[in-house]
From TrEMBL:
Belongs to the peptidase M18 family. The keyword Protein biosynthesis does not apply. Keywords: Aminopeptidase, Hydrolase, Metal-binding, Metalloprotease, Protease, Zinc. Its EC number is 3.4.11.-. This is M18 family aminopeptidase. Coiled coil: none annotated. Its cofactor is Zn(2+). It is an enzyme of class 3 (hydrolase). One of its GO terms (biological process) is proteolysis. InterPro entries: Peptidase_M18 (IPR001948), Peptidase_M18_dom2 (IPR023358). One of its GO terms (molecular function) is zinc ion binding. Gene3D superfamilies: Aminopeptidase i, Domain 2, Zn peptidases.
Length: 441
């Protein structure tokens, strides 16, 4: 896949995926189109050699895999489907001064200032009773701008530019509409109407609950005099989901490779990374282990396969911001458009070791593609990823890597227009690599 085609596909995928539920739905459609078979965890699986399969959990996490040569282990790529955002509270209605507002809860470590004065919409999953009194769930996406958090004028807040903190309880309720003097409105009734429009012919008797996110309706776009950059919401980490999916499909569709000799390949896209991964569908849950147990039911064989496997945890990295270059170690400041970033931390906040790093470096050099390395300043705290969680849960050797970006956890983030495609090419090669063995002298 060429660079511009790849980037256009990335931007389209992100625009279609305002929530983890929508991201998983989009990926599932791509996998079905590529000949993958959807599995159900509640059923017995009959897996065939050279088969292509995927399974979802909670509608917000997905694992896709191929059944290859088990003697070569499994080539795994991991990412996460969630992004920091504002979520609608269960009883959200706030009515003040004639305005109908929704109370929101901050999900993850969001940068809050950029959420003000944006054209916001609402999307997510709604669970309801149908006309027969049965439970059902469906995805909704209002798509058009229906909400806003207006800033307070500088004249009424002279300290606004002096580092004032945001009170999430008081200052983040979004304005949805204005009400007449005796007018009343229920958010669940609004959702009921939206469900009926989304699913014509489905009678919604009662909305019971929902998981809904606010999001910015501005679509992804190129930026820069020469289209050097891409601006978008949710680059952390739908970017890595798209890279992982695209590289998997590219690798298995390579006609130059004999499919029966290919290693098993796996894409793991987990929810709830931004809040610690501690859920049934998060990386700290059992989803990946359960799939591996079904793919390799014999414990002895499974242990052997995992010992020959490798996981690449793909999650974006901090590029050097030109206005804040001192926030980086001088020798480990990743530059935008200079290649993916190998992430290293002595305290295991990243799972990279010298061998997994060397494997990635070797694959990149074979393709004549650039890469960089990142170590956080020694006087700053380091974030983490699903890499160490996965490595410790199943005992697989792991590499942490990511595309460098600016404005991580903002409502709108920025990457270079070359780096994602570079990582895509290396991961496609990784999925096909038959020998990851390193001789110990």
């Amino acid at each position: 896949m060429q660079l511009d085609s790849f980037n256009q596909g990335l931007m389209s995928f992100i625009e279609r995926s305002p929530t983890p539920f929508h991201a998983v739905s989009s990926m599932a459609k791509e996998l079905l189109s590529a000949g993958f078979i959807a599995l159900d965890e509640s059923e017995v699986w009959d897996l065939k050699p050279q088969g292509r399969y995927f399974v979802t959990r909670n509608g917000s996490s997905l694992i896709a895999f191929t059944v290859g040569d088990s003697n070569q282990g499994v080539r795994m790529v991991g990412a996460h489907t969630d992004s920091p955002c504002l979520k609608v509270k269960p009883t959200p209605e706030v009515k003040q001064k004639g305005f109908f507002q929704l109370g929101v809860e901050v999900y993850g470590g969001a940068l809050l200032n950029p959420w003000f004065d944006r054209d916001l919409s609402i999307a997510g999953r709604v669970t309801f009773l149908n006309a027969e009194g049965r439970l059902a769930s469906g995805l909704v996406d209002f798509k058009r701008p229906i909400a806003v958090i207006p800033s307070l004028a500088i004249h009424l807040d002279r300290d606004a530019n002096n580092g004032r903190a945001i009170n999430a309880q008081k200052e983040l309720p979004v304005i949805l509409t204005q009400l007449g003097e005796n007018e009343d409105i229920s958010f669940r009734e609004i959702l009921k109407a939206e469900l009926r429009e989304t699913y014509p012919g489905v009678e919604v008797a009662k909305v019971l609950d929902y998981e809904l996110c606010l999001y910015d309706v501005q679509p992804p776009s190129y930026l820069g005099l020469n289209n050097e950059f891409i601006m978008s919401a949710r680059l952390d980490n739908l970017l890595s989901c798209y890279i992982g999916l695209s590289s998997l499909l590219d690798a298995i569709n390579d006609d130059s490779k004999e499919s029966e000799k290919q290693p098993s390949s796996m894409l793991v896209c987990s929810d709830h990374e931004e809040v610690g991964s501690q859920s049934a569908e998060g990386a700290q849950g059992t989803f990946l282990l359960n799939v591996l147990e079904r793919l390799f039911p014999d414990a002895q064989q499974r242990g052997k396969v995992i010992s020959g496997s490798m996981m690449i945890s793909a999650d974006n990295a901090h590029g050097v911001h030109p206005n804040f270059a001192d926030k980086h170690d001088n020798n480990h400041g990743p530059l935008i458009n200079e290649g993916p970033v190998i992430k290293i931390n002595a305290n295991q906040r990243y799972a990279t070791n010298s061998e997994t790093s060397s494997i990635y470096r070797h694959l990149s050099e074979q393709l004549n593609l650039p890469y960089q390395s990142f170590v956080v300043r020694s006087d700053m705290a380091c974030g983490s990823t699903i890499g160490p969680i996965t490595a410790s849960n199943i005992g697989v050797r792991t590499l942490d890597i990511g595309v460098p970006q600016f404005a991580m956890h903002s409502i709108r983030e920025m990457i270079g227009s070359k780096d994602a495609h570079t990582l895509f090419r290396v991961l496609a090669r990784f999925y096909q690599e038959s020998n990851l063995h390193i001789n110990n002298m």
